[in-house]
Amino acid sequence: AAVSATSALYVARVSPTGAIAWGQTWGGTSSTEHLSGLTSTQDGRVFATSYFDGTLRLPARDTNTTSAGTDWAVSSWNATGWARWSRTGGGSNADFAWSVAIGPDDAVYVVGSFETSGVTPVGPITSEGATNGWLVRLADGAAGSDFAKRLGSTDQLTPREVVVDAERLVV
Q: Tens digits of per-residue pLDDT, 1-28?
């Protein structure tokens, strides 16, 4: 897809021999558009986290405009490159998504950081310090509920990675 942007984001599915099965580009009107996390599943679904300011046209959605500062997104594609969905979050200050992982139950886990207060796809969260981390679970067809949890207390905390194994979630 053609994108008229100062910068653009790109994700591709590449075979073990290096052949590109598909590639998708998206972007917006600012120079602050960064792909920050990427993972895939055995059945070929792809998930990406990003952060941006200004206006960003997300896969599978209309144009999104940040309320202020920097906001974040998580997007998903199927095995053939078709955009499945995108979810966004943010608040009045700097909000970032840093990493994405898929649990053994197919739920999508995303970690990031925010200042003061933020809104996630499943509800608001409030910081207890200058910068706190957050963890969001999106069911994506898995059993169980979506949730958003603040990580940290009055100290600055910026979780950069989320990993899920068969036993537990590690942030």
A: 334 445 688 999 998 999 999 999 888 7
CA distances from 20 to 17, 48, 81, 83 (A): 9, 17, 11, 17
pTM above 0.90, yes or no: no
Q: Closest Cα to residue 111, out of 101, 119, 103?
A: 101
In which element (H, E) is residue 48 found?
strand 46-52
Whether the CB-CB separation of 138 and 121 falls below 8 Å is answered with: yes
CA atoms within 13 A on the CB side of 94: 8
Cα 170 from chain centroid?
17
What burial class does residue 95 get, using C-beta atoms within 10 Å of its C-beta: 0-12 exposed, 13-18 middle, 19+ buried? buried
